[in-house]
Amino acid sequence: MLSEKMEKALNDQINAEIFSSYLYLSMAAYFESQNWMGFAAWMKIQSQEEYGHAMKFFKYVNDVAGKVTLDAIEKPKNDWKSPIAAFEEAQKHELYITDRINKLVALANQEKDYATGLFLNYFVTEQVEEVATVNQIIHKFKQIGDNKSSLFFLDRELGMRAK
Ligand code: OFO
């Protein structure tokens, strides 16, 4: 059984994950408008992954007899000054989501809600991976610097992401 506080926090997280999905879809649209089709493809897959995260929370709230309540989704930004700027924003966003997940874990502990604590373990691990992945991409951008042909190569590499 979820406490009222926990239920609200989990519903807020559904909103945050859907916003993540929306933000990355907006980045995909930006990349397509600039003809960076590989970066766009990577972002579209990331957007789907985020929707999957929202649905995991959705299912969990229902599984423990809570009520899912959806809220308005914030309008995402739709333009960036360069490909690396968009990925840097993704990095900042993932650090923010990590902080939110940590706060959810702290709340579950405080509420002695062991089932939710266990459920959240998946997301603790997932956030380590999400931040590491985007860190690696930014590192590559920095190594490339102004080298246009390497940038095309990175676009092609990221476009090969399968899931
Ligand atoms: Fe759902 O992990 Fe990114 O935001």
Descriptive overview:
With 163 residues, this protein is mainly alpha-helical. The chain has a single domain, classed as Ferritin, core subunit, four-helix bundle (Ferritin, Up-down Bundle), CATH 1.20.1260.10. Helices cover 78% and strands 0% of the residues. It is built from five helices and no strands. α1 runs antiparallel to α3. It is elongated. It starts with a helix and ends in a 5-residue tail after the last helix. The site of hydroxy diiron-OXO moiety has 7 residues, from α1, α2 and α3.
Topology:
Layout: H1 4-33, H2 37-63, H3 83-110, H4 114-144, H5 148-158
The chain binds hydroxy diiron-OXO moiety.
Query: What is the global morphology?
Result: elongated
Determine the number of helices (DSSP H or I, runs of at least 4 residues): 5
CATH homologous superfamily annotation: Ferritin, core subunit, four-helix bundle
Mean pLDDT: 97
Estimate the helix proportion, in percent.
over 70%
What class would the helix/strand composition place it in?
mainly alpha
How many strand segments? 0
The end-to-end distance, rounded to whole angstroms, is 34 Å
Runs in which pLDDT lies below 50 for 5 or more consecutive residues are none
CATH architecture: Up-down Bundle
The total domain count is 1
**In CATH's first tier, which class applies?**
Mainly Alpha
| Ligands and ions found | hydroxy diiron-OXO moiety
Could you name the CATH topology? Ferritin
SSE pattern, N- to C-terminal: HHHHH
Taking all Cα atoms into account, the compactness measure Rg is 17 Å
